[in-house]
Amino acid sequence: MGRARRARRIAQQAAYGGGVGVAGLGALSLLGYGLLRAEARMARRIVGQPFEGAPEDSGTYGSGHGTPVQFLVLGDSTGVGMGADHPHQTIGATIASGVAAFSGRPVELTNVAVIGAESSDLDEQVERGLAAVPEPDVAVIMVGANDVTHRIDTSVAVRHLEMAVRSLREAGAEVVVGTCPDLGAIEPVPQPLRLLARRWSRDLAAAQTVAVVEAGGRAVSVGDLLSEAFSAEPTVMFSKDRFHPSPAGYARVAAALLPTVSAALDLFGERSAPAEPNLRRGESVGPVAKAAMRAVTQPGTEVAPAEVDGQARGAQGRWAVLLHRIRPAVPLSAPAGLGEPVTPEGAADAAPVPGPVAQEADEPTADDTPAEDPVAR
What we know:
- There is one protein chain.
- The chain is globular.
- Helix 1 crosses helix 8 (193-214) and helix 8 (193-214) packs antiparallel against helix 12.
- The protein has helices spanning 3-16, 30-46, 77-80, 91-103, 122-132, 145-149, 154-170, 193-214, 227-232, 234-237, 247-264, 288-295, and strands at residues 59-61, 69-75, 107-111, 138-142, 174-178, 218-220, 284-287, 301-305, 313-314, 317-324.
- The protein is of the alpha/beta class.
- Strand 9 and strand 10 (317-324) form a beta hairpin.
- The longest helix has 22 residues, at 193-214.
- It has 12 helices and 10 strands.
- It has a single domain (3-50, 57-368), classed as SGNH hydrolase (Rossmann fold, 3-Layer(aba) Sandwich).
């Protein structure tokens, strides 16, 4: 079964109840499961936990005039900023500073994320967040890694995330979700656990994307955003525990989220003149499940609700737009003989192609075990 169909099925079962196996473990034999448990224990010994906490980043950012933008951050240790050295180095603080600069208004950040949180913990975080900020302008959620490592049923995790997004939307907030990171990018995790962790992470991220868009939010693929830089310089993008991002890693994740948060707040006037998908950059409008499947392999990709001919839904479910608001920050190495490395695309991009893209065919089911997944990274 292709990832697009799996994502759609998980989201449907999340809406109506029922399970799809504990993080995909149902397909494993008892022998294989025992091997993975042994490897997980080994990984826990290698990946230390030297941090006692994280910097407190709640507060006011920017010195502009006007009513402060009310900004909520929810989620797990990534949302908290575990591994950062200073409050201004967290994802929430970096986004808040960017929004303050773009909007010319101060940003009041309220961070209710919790170290070690799973998606089920979002219920309590939403309650606390809305008690502190009854009418948030925007909320960012970072969650999913602990659902994978704790082997939480994917449909259960997705159900809690969707409920959190709906509650925040009902409170008037724009919602941006950084989907589950690719745990296959964590070097200390041995094979074959790392390959399975990649598949589970991507399956959860795709299902999260479907649920978030169905609930009226925007999803941004975090994926293996840090893996290339980590492989080249493991001390740069990851902190000393070799699991959580470093300040540089958090800055890169925040850079992927900031354009979507800014668009959600309409800082660039997109509500009156929506951005059209650019075919040359691989952007498109299509069924949300297919957009979700594509996004998980392209870090930094935004998937948001869309309409086609005035309709929010088609034969295969909710319409969604897939956008690449940022280009890769690290140049990609070109194979020998093919010229210079690929560099980030900028203002020289071709003009956007107007109108939605026709519905795409299913991607090959070989995506279940992606060809690009290396045996060792």
